[in-house]
């Protein structure tokens, strides 16, 4: 295609119209030839963000925000850590991408020598140097991607990370306020204690350890194979058991071989 573009008659070279037609035809053929490559690049540009986390389509960014006109906030954004990082990235990318023009600059002597070479050799050498420059640019861009993509993923994960206060607030919203849960637990314990105390009159015997535990047992000779546990209470509740049993007309009894006090109802 390049060979056909540079091959024309002397008459065409002296007139502008044939040269313009030749240039338009060359541009059209070049466009059709490069179209598959352009389509491939477009597909890669659309698929790459999806592989990194998906697309985000939102009209929120187009809504006017007068807070952005605040000069103080604008200065803070300019001198922020994120802005300095983006500036450093832009400078690094410019330096790396500038490797391709530097390659062409260092090979300017070879480009100047193309004028003294035969057309076939000159085209071959020019295309070779252009391919080398393009390959160098692609290699540099790959290096930029290998550095920038992991950094973007890390920075995004860091932004999504919740602070300690946010974790506490989310835990409180999902699990409930600890103070409210403590009050509910106290009410449940009070209700359970009330149910136990209401069953004390059904007991035939209450065995207590005055400082640790108390149990209320019910036993009917002939109908039960073993005593049935009616209620139990830990720690400070045995005193309440004893008081409730006394109110029901029980009298104290101590089983010496158990070394624990015993209250038995009269039947």
UniProtKB/TrEMBL annotation:
Transmembrane segments: 37-57, 133-154
Signal peptide: none
Gene Ontology biological-process annotations: protein secretion
Record's keyword annotation contains Transport: yes
Record keyword Membrane present: yes
InterPro entries: T3SS_substrate_exporter, T3SS_substrate_exporter_C
A Pfam family: Bac_export_2
Cellular component GO terms, alphabetical: plasma membrane
Key words of the record: Bacterial flagellum protein export, Membrane, Protein transport, Transmembrane, Transmembrane helix, Transport
Function: Required for formation of the rod structure in the basal body of the flagellar apparatus. Together with FliI and FliH, may constitute the export apparatus of flagellin.
Family membership: Belongs to the type III secretion exporter family.
Name this protein carries in UniProt: Flagellar biosynthetic protein FlhB
Species of the source: Vreelandella sulfidaeris
């Amino acid at each position: 295609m390049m060979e056909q573009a540079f091959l024309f008659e002397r008459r065409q070279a002296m007139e502008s119209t044939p040269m313009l037609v030749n240039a338009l035809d060359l541009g059209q053929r070049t466009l059709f030839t490069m179209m598959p490559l352009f389509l491939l690049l477009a597909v890669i540009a659309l698929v790459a963000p999806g592989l990194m986390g998906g697309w985000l389509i939102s009209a929120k960014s187009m809504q006017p925000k007068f807070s952005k006109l605040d000069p103080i906030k604008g200065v803070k954004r300019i001198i922020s850590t994120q802005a300095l990082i983006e500036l450093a990235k832009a400078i690094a990318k410019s330096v790396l991408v500038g490797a391709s023009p530097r390659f062409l600059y260092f090979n300017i002597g070879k480009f100047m020598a193309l004028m003294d070479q035969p057309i076939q050799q000159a085209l071959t050498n020019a295309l070779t140097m252009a391919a080398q420059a393009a390959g160098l640019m692609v290699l540099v861009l790959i290096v930029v991607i290998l550095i920038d993509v992991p950094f973007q993923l890390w920075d995004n994960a860091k932004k999504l990370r919740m602070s300690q206060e946010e974790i506490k607030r989310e835990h409180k919203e999902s699990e409930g306020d600890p103070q409210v849960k403590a009050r509910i637990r106290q009410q449940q314990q009070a209700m359970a204690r009330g149910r136990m105390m209401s069953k004390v009159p059904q007991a035939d015997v209450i065995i207590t350890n005055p400082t640790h535990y108390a149990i209320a047992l019910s036993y009917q000779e002939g109908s039960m194979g073993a005593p049935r546990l009616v209620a139990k209470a830990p720690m400070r509740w045995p005193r309440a058991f004893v008081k409730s049993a006394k109110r029901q007309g029980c009298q104290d009894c101590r089983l010496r071989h158990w070394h624990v006090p015993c209250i038995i109802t009269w039947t």
